[in-house]
Amino acid sequence: MNVKDKILKSCANIYELSRNSKLEDSVFHALQDDLQEISDYFNVSDSQAFFIGLVFSLTFDQQVPDLSDLVKHLKCNPMKLLSYSDDFEVLYSRGIFRRKRNQFGFSNMEVQDDIVFNQKIVEAILSNKPLPELRTNVFKDEFELLEYIESLFDEVEDRSMLTKEMLVIVKRILKANIKFPLIKTIMHFDLREQDHIVYLHLIWRTLLGNEDINLGRFLENVIDKKGIRARYLQSYFSGSNALLHHDLVKKVESIFANELELELTEKSIRCLKETGLSFAQTTKKRDNIILPADTTPRSLIFNEEEMQQLTLLREMTESSVLSKTMKRLEQRNLPPGITALFHGYPGTGKTESVLQMAKNTGRSIFKVDISSSKSMWFGESEKIIKRIFTDYAEYSKECTYTPVLFFNEADALLSQRRKISQSDVSQTENAIQNILLEELENFKGIFIATTNLITNLDEAFERRFLFKIKFEKPDIKARTEIWKLKMKDKLRKDEYERLAAHYGYSGGEIDNIVRKCEIYEVVQGKNITFKDIIDFCESEILLDKNKQPIGFSKY
């Protein structure tokens, strides 16, 4: 008789003779031969073989049984069945059985858990094959280990395994594989079981090129007890979590206030790289990073004084000049950072100047959205500002050329500090500005901020900026060149000059008019005339009653 026939025959006998047996000792004696067959195949005790045969049979009889189904079949006292709990734990730990949360049971009563027979074993028996290799502590490398642990998370998520069982398996795997440098590094820290699974999951995600995880969603999938999940999540909000304490992970501000995202710290990346792991995240473009290739080259036209200052700043940020400049400043015990403030009328090219300067010198831009720096969580804004400079320093290490830290429209951060007040808002805003002043004092790199409201600039910021470049509305000469550049070959020389002389528009405002001209030609299917352009200029004035043409009569 082959393996399949022997096992199926023994399971059938166990199913029949155990019915209404009340788990009396006599049933084990009556099934001695059958128990021996199953015991030999699975390498288990007689009592464990008994429950293997019973669960295997009940699985085909009613899909997935739980302990109450076993009690009904045996007609025994539930306490008598629970006396064999150690046997069930062995079968769970070996992977022969798996727990699955019963949708009709109570979440805190494990007696309601379904008992799932390992499908891999079922397939082996039905194929007349020996017992397949089950859970093993042997992995050829860290990647295989991490992938296997990740599969355990998937099993918990699809309810084919309980959190308790998964944590036991992960703990056993880590203990058995401390020979791997990665595991040795992790086990060096005093971490809880939940910390291990969060950290391992984040490492795996990072290896695949995903920089962060949504902690709440991950915990909801892998921790089935709501109370445990809530208390563990709170440890991150309070800052008491061991992963935060050891600087292994850091919190990342989410676009949703009630969500928490985590990513590996530079310390973690450095430690893990030392174990021989290569991380894909270093090549993944972040949302706030503007690479030189992302910027379309554009010719910018400024008044003579502005052009001189911008040229000096651009020449200083050339790689060879910058390194020499910063080295010399450090030797003289002066702040080595290059800091600049672009201020002036809206639409005069402040932001575009930063983009073009970075592109021309081959530098990336680390752009900061100022609106996101004022968190609704009191006390978080200060942390966010500090993290901006920390993240910039970490990102700089990845770049061939020093990137530009760019605070666009930084009016809210650079404005005059409020007088001492009991207002939480005032105290928070002052704290943010004090941190920014401190960071700029010791800054290493290139920092550029833009603002439209220079009159409200706090005096303490004035000396923090090495360059303060004022962007005026372009003069007639500059406006003429802008019109020529934007409306190339569409007008005569005197028409460019007339537009420049009679409309004191900024470059941004001229851009708006040019866009309208392009749309007009597409919609109307004909070339625009000078009269049409005049009409668009007039409509631009009507949008703002305070704007007046400069001594112009229409024709």
Radius of gyration: 35 Å
**In percent, how helical is the residue content?**
40-55%
Total helical elements: 27
CATH topology of the largest domain: Rossmann fold
Quote the average pLDDT: 83
Shape: elongated
Largest sheet: 6 strands, mixed
Q: What's the domain count?
A: 4
Strand order in space, largest sheet = 6-8-9-10-7-11
Work out the number of β strands.
Answer: 11
Q: What is the CATH first-level class name of the largest domain? A: Alpha Beta
Report the β-strand fraction as a percent range. Answer: 5-15%
Cα(first) to Cα(last) distance is: 108 Å
- According to CATH, the homologous superfamily of the largest domain is P-loop containing nucleotide triphosphate hydrolases
- Stretches with pLDDT under 50, minimum 5 residues: 103-111, 280-284, 545-555
Alpha-beta classification: alpha/beta
At CATH level 2, the architecture of the largest domain is 3-Layer(aba) Sandwich
Any descriptors?
54% helix; 27 helices; 4 domains; single chain; Arc Repressor Mutant, subunit A; three-stranded antiparallel sheet; 555 residues; Rossmann fold
